[in-house]
Amino acid sequence: MSTNNWINLVNEMPDLLAPSMAKDHPNLPVVKAKGCYYYGLDGKKYLDFTSGIATANTGHRHPKVVQAIKDAADHLMHGPSGVIMYESILKLSKELSHVLPGNLDCFFFANSGTEAIEGALKLAKHVTKRPYVISFTGCFHGRSLGALSVTTSKSKYRKFLQPNGLAYQVPYADVKSAPDGIDPETYVIEKLERDFESLFNHQVTPEEVACMIVEPVLGEGGYIVPPSGWLKKIREICDEHGILLIFDEVQTGFGRTGEWFAAQTFGVTPDIMAIAKGIASGLPLSATVASKELMKQWPLGSHGTTFGGNPIACEAALATLEVLKEEQLVENAKNMGTYAYEKLMKLKDEHPVIGSIRAVGLMIGIEIVDPFTGKPDGPALMTILDKCLEKGVLFYLCGNHGEVIRMIPPLTVNTDQIDQGLAILEESLYEYQAELQSPKSEQFQNA
User: Fold this and answer.
1) Cα end-to-end distance, the chain, whole Å
2) What is the percentage of the chain residues whose pLDDT exceeds 90?
3) How many angstroms separate the Cα of 77 from the Cα of each of 16, 62, 80, 86, 107?
4) CA 46, CA 113: separation in Å to the nearest integer?
5) pLDDT tens digits for range 151-207
6) Rounded Cα distance, 136 and 195, in Å
7) How many whole angstroms separate alpha carbon 196 and alpha carbon 1?
8) For the residues 230-259, what does the mean pLDDT come to?
9) What distance in Å separates the CA atoms of residue 1 and residue 74, rounded to the nearest whole number?
10) Between vectors from CA 287 to CA 282 and to CA 289, what angle results, nearest 5°?
């Protein structure tokens, strides 16, 4: 397609695509991607610190993954699994069982993270014969109606949709709220115990609860990293009452946190796990994962899919696992995450618009605040992101107020690329702060 035709299509975008998705930030027209970079329609090269929202863990278009896709297309384009059976879906199941924690070794493959969540909720309710689910305030689990009933990262996702009343919420860990002089981990654990005591005394008995679902690291809700003891206490409460524990590892999986999964990072094994995003380097694939013992209680026809476990996507996933192992990308995520965190902490000391740095592996959140009030500042973040984009680095955002910069580069990222990206972030912060201190600035006038 010619450049002019491409530009014309971009101009028609508001009429062609639903604005509920297409108006997202920054709508950068690209013609190609490779490694840690996007190549724009404008001829510029952009350092990608989004990984397609934590999906391109092996980097964009890794040669091994691309070749696996091409080879697979020569043999089989579509399943559906069950009607026919093919090697890639069976081989992938075996390979995944070697990197997943505990006895999570049986798989229902689907296409998206939301579908994996739906499967997890259905499995838990079917096995326990209990009606209710407990989720945690601020978590994001998807936008289909079942997943939406446990999603509370932003109220706008639930507006006018009346998600069913079979879910209850408990606050997510907030170490920042710990009073001075009290150990933050002890504080959030004790608060969790009080929250559950209140919930079980006043709203729902534990005998009616099928499962608890939690993001082991809060994603869209603000990249909040809880203490491991808090997650272990959730596991303990579930065990006490026969409640199944679901980990939503859609965003945290496949090396993002510096281990294969956050479950291993925090030393907590759930009963059911939802995985997606980094599983196939960008092809649509996900899985609801549990033990054979649980899955065997889910009879034929109780759940199904036409496209889930597509043979080409499964081959891409197998190649993805090979690349993650051969190039030691899980270890690289841990090392590069530490490197980036240390540099960001130095930036925080110099820039009052940075509130906090939240990081585990290469899942890094940079909170932007109003330096005069300390409150979350979403508009400031958008200004900073735009400045970074102009200089050639693509970040994304999260948080209830859109106040947290997500830094989630491919796990192939190196120190030179981190240095380049953070140098541009620093330059953008200096520019923003200079504008903020200008006598013409509204915030300066109101300070």
Assistant:
1) 52
2) 86
3) 28, 20, 10, 11, 21
4) 27
5) 999 888 888 877 777 999 999 999 999 999 999 999 999 999 999 999 999 999 999
6) 11
7) 58
8) 98
9) 26
10) 145
CA distance linking residue 367 with residue 180, whole number of Å: 21
Structural tokens at position 284: 């649509």
Beta strand 106-110 pairing with 45-48: unpaired
74 touches 64 (CB < 8 A): no
Distance CA 344, CA 348 (A): 6
Helix axes of 378-390 and 415-436: crossing angle, nearest 10 degrees: 120
- Both tokens assigned to 135: 């989720």
For the chain, give the longest Cα–Cα distance. Answer: 70
**Stated pTM of the model:** 0.95
3-class SS of residue 10: helix
Which residues make Cβ contacts (< 8 Å) with residue 82, sequence separation at least 6? 304
Concatenating the DSSP letter of every residue in 329-389 gives HHHHHHHHHHHHHHHHHHHHHH-TTEEEEEEETTEEEEEEB-TTT--B-HHHHHHHHHHHH
Task: Pull the structure tokens for residue 73.
Answer: 């297309």
**Where does the pLDDT of residue 131 fall: very low under 50, low under 70, confident under 90, or very high at 90 and above?**
very high
| Mean pLDDT score of the chain | 94
Per the model's pLDDT, the better-predicted residue between 37 and 440 turns out to be 37
Using alpha carbons, select from 392, 353, 357 the residue that is nearest to residue 376.
353
Mean pLDDT of 45-62: 97
Q: What is the DSSP letter of 39?
A: E
The phi and psi torsions of 67 (rounded to 5 degrees) equal -65, -40
pLDDT tens track for 383-432: 999 999 999 999 999 999 999 999 999 999 999 999 999 999 999 999 99
Q: What is the pairing mode between strands 393-394 and 45-48?
A: parallel
Q: How far is CA 251 from CA 31, 235, 393, 427, in A?
A: 25, 20, 21, 29
Residues with Cβ < 8 Å from 193, sequence gap 6 or more? Answer: 233, 237
**DSSP helix/strand/coil, 84:** strand
Q: How many CA atoms lie within 13 A of 408 on its CB side?
A: 29
